[in-house]
Amino acid sequence: MNKKVLVLNLPNREQITRRYMCSYTSPESLMPPLELISCGAVAREWHKAEVKLIDSIAEKLSVADTLIEIKSFNPEIIVALTGFECFEDDMNTVSELMQHLSENTFVLFGHYATHFPEETLLHSKADFVILGEPELVLNNLLQNLFTQKNIQSVTGIAYLQNGKMVRQGEAGRIKDPNELPVPAYDLLPLHKYGEPLMAHPYGMIQTVRGCPYQCNYCVKSYGTKLSQLNTDRVIHEMKQWVELQGVKSIRFIDDTFTLNKQRVIELCKAIIENEIKVEWACLS
Question: What is the model's pTM?
Answer without folding.
Answer: 0.95
